[in-house]
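Changelog note: in this version the structure field was regenerated for every chain. One regenerated record is shown below for reference.
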Amino acid sequence: MLGENGVYRNVIPIRERNVKVSLVPSLAISLAEAKERIDLLEQFVKEMMKKGLDYGMIEGFRKPTLLKPGAEKLCDIFGFSKHVDIINRMENWEKGIFAYEVKVTLVSKQTGYMEAEGIGTCNNKEQPFIDQDPFSLVNTLLKMAKKRALIDAVLSATRASGLFTQDIEDLSMENPINKGGEAPATDKQLLMIFRTVSELNMRPEVAKEMMQMMFQVDHSTKLTKQQASSFIQDLLLLKIKP
């Protein structure tokens, strides 16, 4: 209020407070709670997830790769709903070039809040597809992009990246074990190829045709170690329900 001589009355002076601001963020949960979560996740993986179905083990890789059925199980146990969006697509039917970029968003069914987003891409210029008919791969490429985005989101939301890797094919570019390229397929790889083909009820002629299309060889014993890893992954993907 303005009083006589132009002086304001009833004005309360603002006192400076000695406020200490911490530059170090505090933990959202205690170390004990964090350890309990990790222990529960490891127990669930050990007791409820199946090798060869929910995750794959390939010789030469330290961590198993998380497969789609395993990602779906983790979504269920953590109570996530999935939202899929195709954010980029290239479909050039004249040149036979197809590429997809997919985003998967995981939302907590309990709180309604977004937990994580994952991005996955796939195109027919990748090594496993480069020698195949591109026009027959459109649906496969889109499914692969969705699968990669889902796994990316699940690993982030569940903090399971310490247990699983994103993809065997991603590791093959990073892991120096497979960079030799010309080393022959190992006995364990050949055994896994034989076992997986049997589990798929796939006729040997079909497996042989796949190897011819992808690697120009007519028998698994002629595969290199790197080719065998790639072929095993393709077989594991065939086990995933559409």
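Spot check on this record: The chain is about 40% helix and 15% strand. Confidence is low (pLDDT under 50) at residues 169-181.
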